[in-house]
Amino acid sequence: DQQVKQNSPSLSVQEGRISILNCDYTNSMFDYFLWYKKYPAEGPTFLISISSIKDKNEDGRFTVFLNKSAKHLSLHIVPSQPGDSAVYFCAASAGSNYKLTFGKGTLLTVNP
Amino acid sequence: DAGVTQSPTHLIKTRGQQVTLRCSPKSGHDTVSWYQQALGQGPQFIFQYYEEEERQRGNFPDRFSGHQFPNYSSELNVNALLLGDSALYLCASSLGQGWETQYFGPGTRLLVL
N or C: which end of chain A has fewer CB within 10 A? Predict the structure, then answer.
C-alpha cells in the first residue's frame, strides 16, 4: 500500500525552463509534506516543505504547491539548472507521528 | 562539523548472518531515525530513537532492532538476514522532531548473498 506516489520515474528538461515534479498521496491524515533531493552516493537533502494549512510555499527557485482536495502536491523549479539534476523524493508525515513516508522518487535531468 | 556519518559504507553478508550498522549523528542532534531504501524505491522508515528509547517503529519485523547510546550515536542490528534485506540503509539525525533539521547520512550499502 503506497501512500505517497510519484508516478513519473524520470523527467528531462532544458536548462532555464521550468521543472514540475508531481506527488500524490492517499492518507488524509498527512498534514506535513517535504521534498528531498538526492545525489548519487549521498543521503537525501531537505529542500522545501509545506504544512497542510497552506497551499503554497516558496524558497528562491523552488515552490511547492499543495492541493488538499486532490491530495496532490507539486514542486516547481524555475529556472532549472544542470546542478538540479538529481532524484527528488516527496515525503509526508501525519500529526505527531514521528515517521516520514516517502515516494519512490523522480529522476530529474536538466540538460545544458 | 562532519554531519551524519555511517559505517561501514559497504557490507556483504550471507543469508542467516547478523549485521550491525552504525551511525553518528550531526553535532547537537539528539534524535536518530533509520530507513531502508531498496533499489528503485523510496526510503522506508524502520524506527526512530530519542533519549535512548525507540520512539516509533515502522512495518519491519523484530529481526530489525536498534540501540541509541548516551552520546546519541545509534546502531541498527538485523538478525537472520534474508536476500530481501539487501538495500541502502540510511540514518538521519535531527533535533527533536524538526523535519527541516533532519540530515541524512550517505548510507550503508548491504548486500545479502
Answer: N
d(CA B90, CA A80): 28
Q: Which amino acid is at B100?
A: E
- Helical spans, DSSP H, in chain B: none
- Give yes or no for a contact between B89 and B81, defined as CB atoms under 8 angstroms apart: no
Per-residue pLDDT reduced to its tens digit, B23-77 = 999 998 999 999 999 999 999 999 999 999 998 899 999 999 999 999 999 999 9
Q: Scanning the structure block, which residue is given the C-alpha cell 546502531? A: B75
Burial of B83 by CB count in 10 Å (0-12 exposed, 13-18 middle, 19+ buried)? exposed
Closest residue to B99, CB basis, from A4, A34, A105? A34
At A31 the three-state DSSP class reads coil
Query: How do residues A40-86 score in pLDDT, each as one tens digit?
Result: 889 999 999 999 999 999 999 999 999 999 999 999 999 999 999 99
Query: Please, what is the Cα angle at B59 between B74 and B89, to 5 degrees?
Result: 40
Q: In Å, what is the CA distance from B64 to each residue of A6, A45, A84, B10? A: 27, 25, 35, 18
> Measured between CA atoms, how close is B54 to chain A, in angstroms?
11
